[in-house]
């Protein structure tokens, strides 16, 4: 594995203009993200042919090289070793310069918001997965009565519920960091909103509701808190800053939070919850099909990150999330579409790409299949969306809901309410089959030559029936 990673890293560097041309090399879950001094020196055609590269995407002057989960981290680390990049992941100490240039040139308010949302919730995903799986296991134990309820099941209940019991505080701390405030104060403000003692206090004749507004309220309150903290810090003398700034910040933000922002967050949260649940319950198959069928284009644009607070809020409000299982069908439809491409294509390189990307696609990580297979070929992407619509319709009709988040694809079955697991798996199979059938019937332009870039349709033969 080590030699393979080294070879891949060297191949990427060579086809990106060499060491001197690379400014930065970082990674996300499935991609190595790079910036260059001269983008014209990048040989994209040769880069796509590097062993292990599933596809490339251009975004905001970044070149994002899709290599798959776990591999992305290893390749990026190996590249930084070869390039001699510093800990800030950018050579020659230019990290801040590059960041500022990209932000001023390509940054938009929408992109900034999505990035902040992502940065707030992505660190919590391991906790959601771990606790969610424990909840799922515990539910199965209780449902099928594998053991008698007792100390073990009680402990599992505590373990599985921990992330949701304190999620608002963790969100508050992460949000404060993103908004430029102190994480500790962000956690404190979230703690104030969920303190049980609020129920004993009446304001304007009505008892306060601990935790009202959930994640939405916390985000609003912490955004305001960070604003107050920064303003106070500017006017307070440094000799008393350590004492006065947190005191005034908590007092000012606390009263504004309780009187204005938590009720506002509660109204927004109630509205979102009502719209989502009513749409799924009353719209049934049609709404499920629309939501699932349009989710892949949303993933392409990155707008799906904006749904994360909604998923979290649905969990805190209702204890379950009917939206996630529907949207998860997008990945299942894509798996079916990719299998159809594998069956019909004569291109050996394309087959190899699908074979390497399909397992992680089944596990819920769809980017390698999106950018390496379905999207470049065109019609299979449409087939994947239509396949997803069938599974989404099924999950909506049978009211499938998850008890946590962080997983997708087939593994999400472990986080589905125990009495709905069979229906979720049925939805996955429906999307697999529908994605396969639709893509097989639609066909696609199949590259003739193995060495040819199959993302180009020039000189390709049609596989349409």
Task: Give a description of the structure.
This protein is of the alpha+beta class and 465 residues long. It has 3 domains: 2-107, Gyrase A, domain 2 (2-Layer Sandwich); 166-279; 294-462, no CATH class. It is 64% helix and 6% strand. It contains 19 helices and 8 strands. The strands form 3 sheets. The protein has a 4-stranded antiparallel beta sheet, sandwiched between helices. Strands 5-6 form a two-stranded antiparallel sheet. Mean pLDDT is 86; it is low at 87-103 and 450-462.
Summarize the structure.
The protein has 465 residues and is of the alpha+beta class. The chain is 64% helix and 6% strand. It has three domains: 2-107, Gyrase A, domain 2, CATH 3.30.1360; 166-279; 294-462, no CATH class.
Strand percentage: 5-15%
Describe the global form.
globular
H/E topology pattern: HEEHEEHHHHHHHEEHHHHHHHHHHEE
What is the share of helical residues?
55-70%
Give the structural class.
Answer: alpha+beta
Mean pLDDT comes to: 86
Overall tally of domains: 3
* Count of distinct strands: 8
Whole-angstrom Rg: 24 Å
Low-confidence stretches: 87-103, 450-462
- Per DSSP, the total helix count is 19
User: Main β-sheet, in a few words?
Assistant: 4 strands, antiparallel
Instruction: Please give the alpha-carbon distance between the first and last residues.
Output: 41 Å
């Amino acid at each position: 594995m080590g030699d393979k990673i080294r070879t891949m890293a060297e191949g990427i560097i060579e086809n990106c203009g060499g060491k001197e041309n690379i400014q930065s090399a970082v990674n996300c879950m499935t991609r190595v993200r790079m910036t260059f001094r001269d983008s014209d020196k990048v040989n994209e055609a040769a880069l796509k042919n590097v062993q292990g590269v599933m596809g490339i995407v251009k975004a905001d002057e970044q070149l994002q090289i899709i290599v798959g989960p776990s591999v992305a981290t290893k390749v990026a680390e190996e590249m930084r070793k070869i390039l001699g990049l510093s800990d800030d992941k950018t050579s020659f100490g230019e990290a801040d310069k590059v960041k500022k240039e990209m932000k001023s040139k390509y940054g938009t308010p929408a992109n900034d918001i999505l990035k902040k949302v992502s940065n707030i919730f992505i660190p919590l995903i391991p906790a959601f997965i771990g606790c969610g799986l424990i909840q799922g296991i515990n539910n199965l134990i209780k449902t099928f009565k594998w053991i008698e309820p007792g100390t073990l099941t009680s402990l599992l209940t505590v373990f599985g519920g921990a992330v949701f019991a304190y999620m608002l505080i963790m969100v508050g701390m992460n949000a404060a960091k993103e908004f430029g405030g102190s994480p500790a104060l962000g956690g404190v403000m979230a703690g104030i909103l969920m303190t049980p003692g609020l129920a004993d206090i009446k304001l304007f004749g009505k008892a306060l509701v601990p935790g009202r507004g959930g994640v939405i309220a916390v985000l609003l309150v912490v955004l305001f808190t960070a604003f107050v903290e920064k303003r106070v810090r500017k006017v307070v003398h440094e000799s008393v800053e350590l004492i006065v700034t947190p005191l005034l910040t908590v007092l000012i933000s606390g009263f504004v939070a309780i009187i204005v922002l938590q009720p506002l967050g509660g109204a927004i949260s109630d509205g979102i919850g009502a719209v989502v649940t009513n749409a799924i319950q009353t719209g049934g198959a049609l709404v499920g099909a629309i939501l699932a069928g349009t989710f892949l284009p949303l993933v392409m644009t990155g707008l799906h990150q904006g749904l994360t607070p909604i998923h979290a809020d649905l969990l805190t409000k209702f204890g379950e999330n009917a939206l996630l299982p529907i949207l998860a069908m997008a990945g299942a439809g894509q798996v079916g579409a990719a299998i159809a491409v594998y069956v019909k294509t004569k291109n050996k390189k394309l087959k190899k790409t699908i074979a390497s990307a399909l397992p992680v696609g089944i596990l819920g990580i769809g980017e390698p299949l999106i950018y390496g297979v379905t999207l470049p070929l065109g019609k299979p992407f449409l087939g994947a969306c239509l396949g997803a619509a069938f599974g989404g319709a099924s999950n909506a009709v049978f009211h499938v809901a998850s008890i946590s988040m962080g997983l997708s694809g087939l593994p999400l079955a472990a986080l589905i309410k125990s009495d709905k697991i069979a229906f979720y798996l049925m939805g996955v199979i429906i999307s697999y089959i529908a994605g396969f059938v639709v893509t097989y019937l639609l066909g696609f332009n199949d590259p003739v030559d193995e060495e040819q870039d199959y993302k180009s349709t020039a000189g390709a033969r049609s596989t349409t029936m």
